[in-house]
């Protein structure tokens, strides 16, 4: 059953169209991440789901109810804001009670709910404090607590972790995941951080310029990105794009070719019928950094692996892994290697490319072939 | 080597001595100037305070600016209830209470309206609300002279001519622009997310105002109340034009008092009267100085 | 189910529409009052200035006659010449004095708030009270002259308020005394808003104290100078209380100001038409100062938003 259904939703501010026909649905208990660069319309979409922005056209259903013109308070939702938006003059407890008071929940029940949620989030020690006396992580917890006491049909998160420092952000991410697993509420989570989206969501909607580019589970979004935008946005470092041409090699098996710096041509064989789906000979070859590795006995003869060599320009060790900028013709390509097979600057590195994981895109439409 | 080090410390010492002497001189100049100017600022206040306790004969003989030789309190009760102003010998008490009756309701009403207006113009914007705000801002700059005739006419029609209630109305409307400006500028800095959260929590227009905005407002309420209180208390033009005789506020009475001194001036009583008139805003200033200055700077630069 | 949902939402939306307009209903009286106060009052006074009103408002139209007789009136020429003279010295001196105080206080002095309290207290006192006391001090028979004479310098003369030529200086001096603290407060706020890193950079560049102020700090608070000047000019144009309390336009008519002229003609002489014309001139003078200033503010905001 769908907890949230959005059909052909549009939003304009004057002549500027920020949402251009969005379709989305969330099944009960799902964790949906809305991800995209700033200005892609994800926060506007969330505000419209919350009822804080009016709908220009299209429909929003929460459960079976059309909520286009329902007040935020009547939508059975709860929201956690980027700035937390805790009422600064109220104690933590009063913050959590505020919404229940508005709805006329009896005092005894309020106490019970607050006690339960406070225990769940381990915020009992600061119930009497004001938000100003709490640390960033504690405020974050309180903001979630204020949402949890509502026990809504839909949880909305608007970049809730972006005000935390890096370490705390990772910890809180895990907590949110645990929390969602425990309470199992449908959640819509806006973020610009693709790692957050990947780790938390059961499905990800990648947005760009007011449109949903792809709406799928994290694995599909990462491995079969719908177009070059999604491919480039998800994953860090980004997927490498190389302009290439499809040819048939001597044996008749198709391959992608692109020129190398020395005047030579790299020819990487393709697998299982991808070439047949291509509309034209020209394609964009997409290879993720981790699908490049040093040629070795274990991978050089392996099915689906192509070999080539490339000049190493820059090497950036990060400890756990080493990034290297390689020269593919006149283009720079990033590879991600384990430290023991890491290249040296200036080396002409023999590479094995995992072509089973490579993506081809149509240069005209930028779509995945 | 040792010599060089020694030489260096000697030079350093000399430099340090020069630097500290220069610093001393500059400090003397700074405090000297500040002290001198302070004398100019304090003397007028001191003159009034001291003269309200001296005998008039002594002031006549020694001048206003001299050390007191006598001390008595007679001038104060005289100024309060006996002194003759414009043919009536009831002191300034009556005018003082007129001012109180004018300033208290006018301050409360204009501050309350300003809070609500500022809340609406910053958080519940509607089409044209920016233009509305712009028009209200114009009121800040209107010279009182332009409004004199219309007010006189309007108050006459409303049956409020020559009454303290009339002045309350005048100051409420006159102050509306300022109070709205103060609150609006304060409220725009309150994050909108707070109101969104409250709306999701089911709070409406008034609940958000009372439960979220007002608890955040004490600083701006104090600034506005002080601004309105001192401004209205010290106002002269409307009081003297729109009201007459025993319905005038204290500022008009002070002018009448210093003009009426055709015979020998009773500086002792007049000093006490001036102090009575200046005391309420001065007390407000000395107790709420920080907020008073904040109001001044905010009022000047929007 | 969806239809039911729709009907529910339609029901709420009527109620919501009423609620949506609550803020407008609440603010409407204030808007109306402000509108009347600003536009109707000004328009009415303008109309009176074109009428043949004398002792009481009357609505016989006589065009710009009141303005013509205003501008041929010798008293009016005294009034606006006084305003120009007063504005020039009052504004520049109050600014200079306030800036000096602000710089002195900015030198990390002890008991800063004590000094500030001293220089600002005149702002809490009415111009009426200030003017009354200073009038006593200017009085040669009991005030400053009397004191200096008593100290032994018997030739000393200081009788501004009784001297036709110099009476305006009494108002200028008292005006500065009353408002220098105000310009000090604004300048001090400006000085404190300068990025301390810029000042450190200037010190490392070897700039002297004086040069740091002249070349680095003061130029970066340029907008404050304009703001202070505009506010003080406004005070100058509205000068009424001080002139009444200090000299009551005298001796003779020598310290008449436009604002006192309005009062005089409207309520002492029963020449409402001409008083209204003078009031319109006061409004025009304010507009001359404030319209360019608000255009400047708009321009600056645009430029800032374009750059940032």
Automatic annotation (TrEMBL), chain A:
Domain ABC transporter, chain residue ranges per copy: 4-234
> Could you tell me which PROSITE patterns the record lists for this protein?
ABC_TRANSPORTER_1 (PS00211), ABC_TRANSPORTER_2 (PS50893)
The source's domain of life comes to Bacteria
Give the GO biological process terms. Answer: carbohydrate transport
Location comes to:
Cell inner membrane
Gene3D superfamilies, per the entry: 2.40.50.100, Nucleic acid-binding proteins (2.40.50.140), P-loop containing nucleotide triphosphate hydrolases (3.40.50.300)
A UniProt-annotated Pfam family: ABC_tran
The molecular function terms in GO held by this entry are:
ABC-type transporter activity; ATP binding; ATP hydrolysis activity
SMART domains xref list: AAA
What keywords would UniProt list here? ATP-binding, Nucleotide-binding, Transport
One cellular component term (GO) for this entry is: ATP-binding cassette (ABC) transporter complex, substrate-binding subunit-containing
The membrane topology term of the UniProt record is: Peripheral membrane protein
Record's protein name: Sugar ABC transporter ATP-binding protein
Organism per entry:
Devosia insulae DS-56
């Amino acid at each position: 059953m769908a907890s949230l259904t959005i059909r052909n939703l549009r939003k304009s501010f004057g002549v500027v169209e920020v949402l251009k026909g969005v379709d989305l649905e969330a099944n009960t208990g799902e964790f949906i991440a809305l991800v995209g660069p700033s200005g892609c319309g994800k926060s506007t979409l969330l505000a419209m789901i919350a009822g804080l922005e009016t709908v220009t056209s299209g429909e929003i259903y929460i459960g079976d109810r059309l909520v286009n013109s329902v007040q935020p308070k009547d939508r059975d939702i709860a929201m956690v804001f980027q700035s937390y938006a805790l009422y600064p003059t109220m104690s933590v407890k009063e913050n959590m009670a505020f919404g229940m008071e508005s709805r006329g929940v009896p005092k005894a029940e309020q106490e019970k709910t607050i006690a339960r949620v406070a225990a769940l989030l381990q915020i009992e020690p600061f119930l009497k404090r004001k938000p100003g006396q709490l640390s960033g992580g504690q405020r974050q917890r309180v903001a979630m607590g204020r949402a949890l006491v509502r026990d809504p049909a839909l949880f909305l998160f608007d970049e809730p972790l972006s005000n935390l420092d890096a370490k705390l952000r990772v910890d809180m991410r895990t907590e949110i995941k645990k929390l969602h697993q425990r309470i199992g509420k449908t959640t819509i989570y806006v973020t610009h951080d693709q790692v957050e989206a990947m780790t938390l969501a059961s499905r990800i909607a990648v947005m760009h310029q007011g449109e949903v580019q792809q709406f799928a589970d994290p694995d599909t979004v990462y491995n079969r990105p719908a177009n070059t935008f999604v491919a480039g946005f998800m994953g860090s470092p980004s997927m490498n794009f190389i302009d290439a041409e499809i040819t048939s090699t001597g044996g008749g098996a198709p391959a992608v070719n692109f020129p190398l710096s020395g005047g030579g041509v790299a020819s990487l064989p393709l697998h299982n019928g991808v070439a047949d789906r291509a509309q034209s000979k020209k394609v964009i070859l997409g290879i993720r950094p981790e699908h490049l590795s040093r040629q070795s006995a274990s991978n050089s003869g392996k099915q689906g692996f192509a070999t080539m060599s490339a000049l190493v320009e820059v090497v950036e060790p990060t400890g756990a892994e080493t990034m290297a900028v390689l020269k593919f013709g006149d283009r720079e390509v990033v590879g991600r290697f384990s430290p023991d097979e890491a290249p040296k600057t200036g080396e002409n590195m023999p590479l094995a490319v995992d072509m089973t994981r490579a993506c081809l895109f149509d240069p005209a439409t930028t779509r995945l072939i | 080597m040792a010599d060089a080090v020694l030489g260096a410390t000697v030079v350093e010492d000399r430099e340090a001595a020069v630097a500290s002497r220069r610093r001393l001189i500059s400090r003397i100049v700074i405090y000297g100037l500040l002290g001198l100017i302070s004398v100019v600022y304090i003397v007028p206040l001191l003159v009034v305070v001291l003269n309200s306790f001296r005998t008039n004969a002594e002031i006549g003989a020694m001048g206003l600016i001299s050390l007191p030789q006598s001390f008595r309190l007679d001038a104060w009760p005289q100024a309060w209830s006996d002194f003759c102003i414009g043919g009536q010998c009831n002191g300034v008490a009556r005018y003082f209470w007129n001012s109180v009756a004018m300033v208290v309701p006018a301050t409360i009403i204009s501050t309350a309206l300003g809070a609500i207006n500022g809340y609406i113009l910053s958080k519940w914007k509607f089409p044209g609300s920016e233009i509305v705000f712009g028009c209200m801002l114009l009121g800040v700059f209107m010279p009182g002279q332009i409004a004199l005739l219309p007010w006189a006419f309007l108050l006459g029609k409303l049956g409020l001519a020559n009454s303290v209630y009339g002045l309350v109305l005048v100051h409420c409307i006159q102050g509306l622009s300022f109070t709205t400006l103060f609150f609006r500028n304060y409220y725009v800095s309150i994050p909108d997310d707070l109101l969104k959260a409250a709306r999701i929590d089911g709070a409406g227009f008034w609940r958000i105002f009372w439960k979220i905005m007002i608890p955040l407002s004490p600083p701006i309420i104090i600034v506005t109340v002080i601004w309105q209180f001192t401004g209205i208390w010290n106002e002269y033009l409307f009081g003297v034009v729109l009201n007459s005789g025993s319905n005038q506020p204290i500022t008009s009475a002070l002018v009448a008092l210093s003009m009426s001194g055709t015979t020998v001036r009773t500086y002792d009583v007049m000093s006490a009267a001036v102090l009575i008139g200046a005391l309420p805003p001065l007390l407000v200033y000395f107790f709420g100085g920080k907020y008073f200055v904040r109001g001044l700077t905010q009022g000047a630069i929007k | 189910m969806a239809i039911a949902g729709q009907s529910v939402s339609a029901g709420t939306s009527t109620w919501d529409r009423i609620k949506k307009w609550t803020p407008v209903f609440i603010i409407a009286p204030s808007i109306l009052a402000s509108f009347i106060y600003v536009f109707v009052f000004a328009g009415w006074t303008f109309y009176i200035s074109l009428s043949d009103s004398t002792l009481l408002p009357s609505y016989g139209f006589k065009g710009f006659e009141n303005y013509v007789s205003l501008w041929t009136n010798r008293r009016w020429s005294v009034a606006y010449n006084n305003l120009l003279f007063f504005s020039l010295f009052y504004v520049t001196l109050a600014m200079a004095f306030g800036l000096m105080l602000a710089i002195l206080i900015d030198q990390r002095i002890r008991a800063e708030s004590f000094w500030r309290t001293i220089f600002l207290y005149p702002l809490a006192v009415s111009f009426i009270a200030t003017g009354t006391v200073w009038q006593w001090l200017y009085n040669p028979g009991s005030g400053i002259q009397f004191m200096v004479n008593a100290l032994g310098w018997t030739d000393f003369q200081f009788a501004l308020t009784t001297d036709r030529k110099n009476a305006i200086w009494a108002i200028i001096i008292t005006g500065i005394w009353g408002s220098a603290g105000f310009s000090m407060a604004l300048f001090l706020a400006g000085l404190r808003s300068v990025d301390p890193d810029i000042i450190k950079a200037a010190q490392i560049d070897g700039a002297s104290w004086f040069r740091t102020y002249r070349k680095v700090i003061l130029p970066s608070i340029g907008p404050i100078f304009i703001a202070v000047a505009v506010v003080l000019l406004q005070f100058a144009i509205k000068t009424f209380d001080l002139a009444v309390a200090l000299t009551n336009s005298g001796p003779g008519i020598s310290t008449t100001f436009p604002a006192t002229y309005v009062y005089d003609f409207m309520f002492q002489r029963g020449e409402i038409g001409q008083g209204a014309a003078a009031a319109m001139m006061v409004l025009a003078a304010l507009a001359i100062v404030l319209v360019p200033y608000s255009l400047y503010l708009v321009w600056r905001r645009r430029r800032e938003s374009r750059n940032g």
